[in-house]
Please model this.
Amino acid sequence: MARIMCSVVLLVGIALPAIAGNLKNGENLFKKHCKSCHRLTEGVLMGPSLKGVTMRLSDEWLDKWIKDPKGVFDSGDPYAVEILEKFKKMMPKKSAMSKKENREDVILFLKENDKK
Model:
């Protein structure tokens, strides 16, 4: 029994950091790279509102989009095409978003915002 409990504690200890991400980093990245064009509430600035975005789009899609918006558009993705048609401007590729950890942190921040 003790061996099982030790294994569970070890597994949880290993899994949680990967799941948790860094919420503060995500918030800081959003403020620095996204806030000038996107709102976290209803309404539009230069780009679409991000309210509820993590409920509408998968983490995988968001990760690809944040990493390389033009690449997603060039792949013929229907939602990416719709965004460009509606807003008439391609979201810029940000060098900070080349790091997977940063993208995960921004997505975590968006998920937390969507809980409000």
Observations:
- Confidence is low (pLDDT under 50) at residues 4-19.
